[in-house]
Automatic annotation (TrEMBL):
SUPFAM superfamilies according to UniProt: MFS general substrate transporter
Molecular function in Gene Ontology: transmembrane transporter activity
Domain Major facilitator superfamily (MFS) profile stretches: 73-548
Descriptive protein name: Major facilitator superfamily transporter
Chain ranges passing through the membrane: 64-83, 165-188, 194-214, 234-256, 262-283, 340-364, 384-404, 457-479, 491-513, 525-543
Pfam families xrefs: MFS_1
Record's bilayer topology term: Multi-pass membrane protein
Alphabetized UniProt keyword annotations: Membrane, Transmembrane, Transmembrane helix
PANTHER family (UniProt xref): TETRACYCLINE-EFFLUX TRANSPORTER (PTHR23507:SF40), ZGC:174356 (PTHR23507)
Principal location class: membrane
Entry annotated with the keyword Transmembrane: yes
Lineage summary: Eukaryota, Fungi, Dikarya, Ascomycota, Pezizomycotina
Subcellular location(s) of the protein: Membrane
């Protein structure tokens, strides 16, 4: 019988600025101490990005927790105004529709439309078609403009920081809410088409697309890769918590104030609070030195680009930011390009469905031919589905992360006795399988919507689709692991272009389909949803773990730089998780 083999630890040789090894194992180096400091048997995982924040007081240290409270408050107001805003648009369109009918036929008699009240006379095919087309126009306006603005803000944030640009992205929402209030207060003076002006203001500042890009970039800056999905999940949980409790609180708030307009005043106030808090209080996640390095790199790239009319046109191309989704050059590979494209395509479908299908699903549910829901029933449905998403993001996702990622890493660290450096080493197997599970739940829930013939099955199917919320958080965390830290904003900016395009193409597909099939085959929108989620599920099997852009990451400390000799002597000997292997 052959003798048992000893465990072998394969270490990486890290080098200093002069390319000298700082943790090279020699013949006299013991296996378990090859990467560990003398006398330190309890090694912890390290993350190079933490060097940017060393020595900072807590109020200047960036963290995703700084964003949770203002973001939760904002999403609470946003979720509370979602259904009232849609119903307000229905009332405004209905009011004008009946007014137009009286012009054509002076003998036409109709029940007056009261804004904010239940108006069953508005639940007719003609009004629903006009509402569908008008919401399509709003989404198109916001989507096209944010497709141009969001990537520019994302790339700009790599050079000038995330915080102030995130505050800027929220300014358009203030203008949009103000116009809603004006149109609702003076409906016969200001036509509901003025709401398109609010969509223009929202789109010019990047809208939800730019906000998502900058928030995810901020989170990636200050969160180690193993925790990134969970932290982004917290932000998504805030969004769905707002959708869950917002409608319920809105009902009580309207009953207390006696006016529907109070909801939109509160929403505008939350926008303003978010801008002030993020712009003045939240710490910046990019150090000054990292910003300066990004600016220098950008200046060098600009100098290397030939000047002329053609180069100017290429720079003005709104689709130019998408080139980072097909990276070429040193350190890239075809597998890297496939991974990024598959994740981007899947994320585009998820965002497009979430932003575009919600309106027509509510119109479907409130139709007399289906469930005939009112504002209360629609709010309850949104609250129930959103609450399941919150539980999935706050309980299920952290549990999966702990059991399948953190515990195995802790075991490997304990057995080897060396630290494991966390870096952007691509998606791992946990990311891939969580993504596939979430997409499978989306497909299953959409099929349930198609065949649901009673309200209980319809609501249950919505709760099944709620587990699809794990997919967005997983994708947005996983895709940031494919590139170096100084390209995260640029990559997410390109993803923002796809988000904006999905806000353009999604409403065209869903609203046009609903417009064409209402009263004939209302479930057609769910057939489209199931097909799109099925394509995304197939694309998720293209993603392979451990693929990333191979580029050296150099942390920029916030304190004064030390000499290379001192840095070499105090360097922590580490192993990357992918480079740590055990054989028997």
């Amino acid at each position: 019988m052959s003798a048992p083999k000893d465990d072998i630890v394969v270490t990486r040789v890290d080098r200093d600025v002069h390319n000298k090894p700082i943790n090279e194992a020699t013949e006299t180096t013991s296996l378990l101490s090859a990467g560990a400091p003398d006398g330190d048997s309890s090694c912890e995982d390290t993350w190079p990005g933490s060097a940017d924040f060393e020595g900072l007081p807590w109020w200047k240290t960036p963290s995703v927790y700084w964003l949770l409270v203002p973001y939760a408050l904002f999403t609470l107001a946003f979720g509370g105004s979602l259904v009232p805003k849609l119903n307000l648009i229905v009332d405004l369109v209905c009011q004008r529709h009946f007014a137009d009918q009286t012009v054509l036929d002076p003998a036409f008699v109709y029940t007056p439309v009261i804004l904010g009240a239940d108006n069953p006379q508005c639940l007719i095919k003609e009004v629903k078609k006009r509402v569908s087309m008008f919401t399509l126009a709003i989404n198109l306006t916001t989507g096209i403009l944010s497709a141009i603005t969001a990537p520019k803000l994302g790339k700009l944030s790599d050079r000038y920081g995330r915080r102030k640009l995130l505050a800027l992205a929220s300014c358009g929402g203030v203008v949009a809410e103000l116009i809603v209030i004006i149109c609702a207060t003076f409906p016969w003076t200001f036509h509901y088409n003025w709401l398109l002006l609010g969509a223009v203001a929202d789109g010019l500042t990047g809208s939800f697309t730019a906000g998502s890009v900058l928030i995810n970039s901020y989170t990636s800056d200050c969160t180690r890769p193993s925790q990134r999905g969970v932290r982004i999940g917290y932000l998504h949980a805030c969004l769905f918590m707002g959708l869950a409790f917002g409608p319920l609180l809105t009902g009580y708030f309207v009953a207390w104030t006696g006016t529907l307009l109070s909801v939109f005043y509160v929403t505008m106030g939350c926008h303003i609070f978010f801008i002030i808090f993020v712009g003045l209080i939240v710490p910046e996640s990019l150090s000054i030195k990292r910003q300066l390095r990004a600016r220098e790199k950008h200046d060098q790239e600009q100098k290397s680009v030939a000047r002329g009319a053609w180069s100017t046109l290429k720079a003005a191309n709104p689709l130019a930011p998408l080139k980072i989704l097909w990276p070429t050059g040193k350190g890239t590979s075809s597998r890297l390009r496939l991974n990024i494209l598959a994740l981007s395509f899947t994320d585009m479908i998820l965002l497009g469905a979430a932003m575009s299908a919600g309106t027509v699903i509510l119109l479907y549910s409130e139709s007399p031919e289906t469930w005939g829901w009112g504002t209360l029933e629609s709010s309850r449905f949104i609250s129930a589905v959103s609450m399941v998403r919150v539980v999935a993001l706050l309980v299920v996702l952290p549990t999966i992360n702990y059991v399948f990622r953190l515990r195995p890493a802790a075991y490997r660290r304990r057995v080897s006795g060396v630290s494991i450096v966390e870096a952007n080493n691509g998606a791992d197997a946990v990311d891939c399988w969580v993504l596939r599970f979430s997409l499978l739940s989306d497909v299953t829930g959409s099929l349930g919507h198609i065949f649901a013939r009673n309200e209980s099955i319809f609501v249950l199917s919505g709760m099944v689709t709620a587990f699809g919320g794990l997919g967005s958080a997983t994708i947005q965390a996983a895709i940031t692991k494919h590139v170096p830290a100084d390209q995260v904003g640029q990559l997410l900016g390109a993803i923002g272009v796809l988000h904006a395009l999905s806000r353009v193409l999604g409403p065209i597909a869903f609203n046009t389909l609903y417009y064409s099939t209402v009263g004939v085959f209302d479930q057609a929108i769910f057939v489209l949803l199931a097909s799109l989620f099925g394509l995304a599920l197939l694309a998720s099997f293209v993603v392979r773990p451990g693929v990333y852009l191979e580029e050296t990451y150099e942390p920029v400390p916030t304190s004064e730089p030390q000499s290379s000799v001192q840095a070499s002597s105090e360097a922590l000997e580490v192993l990357t998780e992918d480079e740590l292997m055990f054989t028997n």
